[in-house]
Amino acid sequence: MSETFHLAVVGATGAVGQEILRILEKRHFPVKTMRCFASSRSQGRLVTFQGQSIPVEILAPNSFKGVDIAIFSAGRKVALEYAPLAQKEGTIVVDNSSAFRKDPHIPLIIPEINAHAIKKHEGIIASPNCTTAIMLMALHPLHRHFGIKRIVAATYQAASGAGAQAMHELTLETKALLEDKSFDRSVMPHPYAFNLFLHNSPLLENGYLEEELKMLYETRKILEDETIRLTATCVRVPILRAHSIALNVEFHAPACKEQAYALLRQAQGITILENRKENYFPMPIDATGQDHVLCGRIREDLSQPNTLELWVVGDQLLKGAALNAVQIAELLIKKHDESSTAQH
Ligand code: A2P
Prior knowledge:
Helices cover 33% and strands 25% of the residues. With 344 residues, it is α/β, with parallel strands linked by helices. The chain has a seven-stranded mixed β-sheet, with helices on both faces. It has a seven-stranded mixed β-sheet with strand order 9-10-8-11-14-13-12. α2 (76-88) links the parallel β5 and β6 (92-95). The radius of gyration is 20 Å and the shape is globular. Residues 11-17, 37-39, 41-42, 59, 74-75, 78, 163-165 line the site of adenosine-2'-5'-diphosphate.
């Protein structure tokens, strides 16, 4: 592969944006030029890429001229406004927000699971919700083998999912509490240090949080199975950047824990981490900074047949967001290389 590409990161000053830059560098993505965009709040800021300081540019309608691939991580509103403008310029957009995930014409991809869906893209590709991505990394090998009938999920979600400011606020609030000082919150809706609360996404008429229904719709789309049933309870816990998920999964075929361990040991991007003698199972500190999603404590549900319980933990900023988006961009390069080879 000799060709290099003009890249842009939209939301380059954010928690995910910063990881995108780091991952592109670490994985030797073939970058010819890099442009970094954020809001007017970041006017005058510099970000680092490949040892160089890059000035942050304020995002504008004409920002995408000459950009081959733009990775967006600046939220739904920015994506809805700017991704179509980028698309018109011929830029391929990989978007981390929820803006396009439910659109049937836009692929929603976890490369280890449904890389083939990239063939159908028309200029915009969506990367899934962080909790869904982490959960499905552990579930798709089991789905292929046993067929998932129903998932019951309880999540323990980190601050990073709400952005860099939420992570910063959690640190400051914890410090203030330890020093017995008062603290004025501006990002999270409730006391967060030494506390937890139901996920801060909109509460819908049916009593579900938007985050919980994202898990349902995105699971069906990525696993390409509209019959899968899912119910979830999503909770924010005072952890900086790794999500944990307790899963109870009922399968169509008889499922045993030995087979499940064997399948997950062979699966890409998953590590089984456990020491039963020490009662050691994956923790957020184990997953922090790790590309792999960690899984352990697979057991057969005593209450009903064909049902397994799993404990899954993954770095929200990596496989939950930035890493997955960069892996999608890598698929684009692979596709580009294959079509160039076919033409010669
Ligand atoms: P900024 O730092 O200038 O606010 P996080 O999820 O960590 O909060 O990061 C969100 C990212 O999206 C940041 O880089 C933020 O830039 C960027 N962003 C937010 N609103 C806009 C906007 N209207 N235009 C461009 N970038 C935006």
